[in-house]
Write a structure and sequence with these properties.
alpha+beta
Length: 168
C-alpha cells in the first residue's frame, strides 16, 4: 500500500515537473522557494547552482511531503463527500418512512373516527326504533323503514371496523 502511494506520488511529481508547472515550497526557515522542474528559485531568482545537494533534497522532500499531504487531503475530501452522499440518501429514506408513517397514522385516525361515527349512528337508530315501538300509534311502515336503516348501518359498521382492523 505504501509502495503504491509512493509510486503515485512519484508519478504526480513527474507529471508536474514535465508539465513545466511550478510549486511553492515554504521551508522551516521561512524561506519560500519555487520549484520548476529541476530548477529552484528564491525571490524570483534562479538559485539552483548556489544550493547544496542537501538543501535541494530538503526542498524536494518538503515538496514531496506537501504533495503527499495534498493528495491525502483530497482523498479524505472524496471519502467525506461519499459519506455525505450516503447520509443524504439515508436521510431521504428516513423522511420517506416518516411521511409514510404519518400518512398511515392519518388514515388510521380517519378510519377510527368513521367507525365511531357509524356506531353512534347505529345506536341512535336503535334508540329511535325502541321509542317508535313504544308508541301506540306507530305505523308498521315507519318501523320497517327504521329496521332497514339499522341493517344498512350494521353493514356499514362492519365495513368500517374491517377497514380499521386492516389498517392496524
Amino acid at each position: 500500500m505504501i509502495m503504491r502511494r509512493f509510486e503515485i506520488i512519484v508519478i504526480v511529481i513527474c507529471l508536474l515537473v514535465s508539465c513545466g508547472s511550478s510549486e511553492k515550497v515554504i521551508m522551516d526557515s521561512g524561506k519560500v522557494y519555487t520549484v520548476k522542474g529541476n530548477s529552484f528559485y528564491y525571490e524570483g531568482k534562479d538559485v539552483t547552482e548556489t544550493l547544496t545537494n542537501k538543501e535541494k533534497r530538503n526542498i524536494t522532500a518538503t515538496l514531496d511531503d506537501k504533495l503527499k499531504a495534498q493528495e491525502q487531503t483530497e482523498e479524505r475530501l472524496d471519502e467525506l463527500d461519499e459519506a455525505q452522499k450516503e447520509l443524504e440518501k439515508d436521510l431521504k429514506e428516513l423522511e420517506d418512512k416518516k411521511e409514510a408513517a404519518e400518512e398511515r397514522r392519518r388514515a388510521l385516525k380517519e378510519a377510527r373516527e368513521d367507525y365511531i361515527e357509524a356506531k353512534a349512528d347505529l345506536r341512535e337508530k336503535k334508540k329511535k326504533l325502541r321509542a317508535l315501538k313504544n308508541k301506540k300509534d306507530a305505523s308498521e311502515k315507519d318501523i320497517e323503514s327504521l329496521k332497514e336503516d339499522i341493517e344498512e348501518l350494521k353493514k356499514e359498521v362492519k365495513d368500517k371496523k374491517a377497514k380499521l382492523e386492516e389498517l392496524r
